[in-house]
Amino acid sequence: MLADSWGSWRIHRYLQNENVRQVFEQIWHYGPLTRNQLSQLTGLAIPTVSRITAELIKAGLVQELNSVESQRGRRPTLIAINPECGYIIGVDLGGTKLITLAINLEARVVARHETLLGPSMKGLEAIRQLLIQSIERVIAKSGKLRDQFIGVGAGLPGSIDHSSGRIIEASNLGIRNWPVREELEAALGLPVRIENDANAAALGELFFGAGRFQRNLAFVSLGTGIGLGLILNEVVFHGDLGQAGEFGHIPLVRDGPMCTCGNRGCLEALAGGWALPERYEEAKGQEPTSPESPRSAMEIFRLARSGDPIAQHVIAQAAEYLGMGIASLLNLLSLRLVVFGGGMIEGNPTFLQAIRKAAVRHLIPELRGQVRMVPSALGRNAGALGGAALILQQVFST
Fold it and tell me: SS3 helix, strand, coil % of the chain, rounded to 5?
């Protein structure tokens, strides 16, 4: 059973009714709105909308904004979400960092904490303590009471069992078979939802970023690894077996370089952040242990910017392989929007431009000129805001 708080109990109590929930959701997505506009969007009669908004105002979930006099008379009163009616914790745990933030219901960040994960911060016990401490620190920094929080949503690395709320495996953190949802709820006394980190970031873009007002999108995460979050009809697509989105492991080169999954020629082994130093060494013909070898993708990008022709070649090849993968995805699903995020995209606009050009070359003619490929509108906060969106999604589906 989910943990509960006064904040979550109050919102869930009022949104049990389908009509009430529908009105609240339309106000959140499109507000401020007049009662007439709400009637048009929901299909409910104006008297019904007026009764529901009166209930929501009394409960403190929405508020009336002051109408303004004009030459044509008094404008209709607008209804807006009361942003202070509840708060949400969003968490983004990656292989190298942990971002935790608190937002109000207008998605304004009221507190944020970021921690870099050192070599000692691996394993179940270390990660459990780190997560709990980071969430507690953000609650304290926000200045809000715990009971004002609706819940905690977390984007986590690795494979996730959504029904049981557990991490099946996150090899980069040394975690296997962890019932994270159950343990966090017990420690925090708040409802918790979890999702794969790329899926969470995709949901963040749908609710707050480049994908607002879209029904379908793909979020491609380019960092240490390559991840994909897929939104179809406004819902994260998990597939029948729950592991959809392993974009980094589509095979591109027969007998190519070895991948961490055990196969050869995967996209991630050709263009992932962890693989770029290996591709550089390969192109230069030097040993991986050479002191001159770059140790990270960021070093490869730095060398390319300074004019190193081998680094430039490695990045151009990575962009070509990524473009081929993106084109395959678009040709298969006919999406209008792909959002890119992650450390390899941040601060490297020419890399994204090269990926776009490569993707367009491999698209079927019918899709060219109709697909947008854009950087994340949320930057480093995409995953954590996506975690928060998990809780909003639960509110809207109560």
Answer: 45, 20, 35
Under 8 Å between Cβ of 13 and 61: no
Torsion on CA atoms 280, 282, 288, 290, rounded to nearest 10? -70
What angle separates helix 18-30 from helix 382-396, to the nearest 10 degrees? Answer: 150
**Residue 12: both structure tokens together:** 């869930």
pTM: 0.87
The structure tokens listed for 206 are 């749908």
CA dihedral 256, 261, 267, 268 (to 10 degrees): -110
The ranges assigned to domains in the chain are 6-84, 86-205+382-396, 212-376
6-84 and 86-205+382-396 agree in CATH topology: no
The label of the residue with tokens 């394993």 reads: 123
pLDDT in tens, 11-62: 777 788 889 989 999 999 888 999 999 999 999 999 999 999 999 998 889 9
Q: pLDDT tens digits, residue range 324-353? A: 999 999 999 999 999 999 989 988 999 999
Q: Calculate helix-pair angle for 6-14, 46-59, nearest 10 degrees.
A: 170
Helix/strand/coil for 21? helix
Q: Tell me how far apart the terminal alpha carbons of the chain are, to the nearest angstrom.
A: 15
- Identify the architecture of domain 6-84 in CATH: Orthogonal Bundle (1.10)
Distance (Å, rounded) from C-alpha 100 to C-alpha 114? 6
- Report the pLDDT value the prediction gives residue 73, as an integer from 0 to 100: 62
